[in-house]
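Researcher: Go.
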Amino acid sequence: MNNKKLLFILIVLGLIFLLTQLFNQKKERSFKSELVALDTSDITRIILNPKAESQKEIILEKTGNQWTAEQGKLKVPAAEGSLDGILRELISIKVKSIATQSTARWKEYEVDDSTGSRVQVFSGNKKLTDFYSGKFGFNPQANSMISYLRLEGEPQVFAIDGFQSMTFNTTFAGFRNKNLINVQQNDINRIKLNQGGKTQTLSKTGQDWTLDGAMILDSTTVSGYLQGVQNLNGSEIIDTYSAAGSADHELELTTASQSVTVKIYNSGDSLKPFIMHSSANPGVYFKEDSAGAYQSLITGWKTLQSRLGQKK
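Model: Structure:
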């Protein structure tokens, strides 16, 4: 009788163990897939409070196929592709482990409201998820990056594979259109540059390039210049600038189908002495130093001039 009882107890304990394991496995699978479970086609609005902006709110809203970005009183069309990283990360969050369940350690992982980047995602008026994206670091054992995430209203901090913390900790400027020139190099047939009242014109005739209709240029140098200006962006957006007076440099680039004019003004700032404005992006001014766009447009032109009378 005692042996039967012992056998019965062992069987019951075995069943309990198996059920516990099965339940934990199902719970773990559900946990991983449902922590942030989204379909990007359902997302119509994202509210960010990124650490990089000292938690200043950024509202990203979708109407039809177009996203807008809003901060304070400024609302602009979001630059093409600027939300791709955020949408991609929202559907690829995979939890590795629980880093802590202690609220006292939130600051350590940068997931509270003063150190983290808050992310709220909506479909219409329905909130799909709400979480804080914290710090990131390197996991030497897995040879990969790891980020930390906490769901709003929950104490647990989760360790996540990847660069989510960097993606969600963005700035409003990251959603702005910074385009100055966006054409194909082979489509360009003329560039006219006016500096201090003196105008020079770089023109294409057949396969040859000439300056002011006379001097043939080194084709390799021309190709390098065109490659540098065909897809050119500004750097620091200035929303409060208003152009006064004429531009110091005015460059007009022409293709068979369009003309783009870039004007360059003196900013009065010794570190970033130039203000740039493009007809391709009329609502934006950019503050620039002597590298980047200025180097491609103006310094590159000086290289063209040094190749006058040469041909390869």
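Model: The two ends are 104 Å apart (CA to CA).
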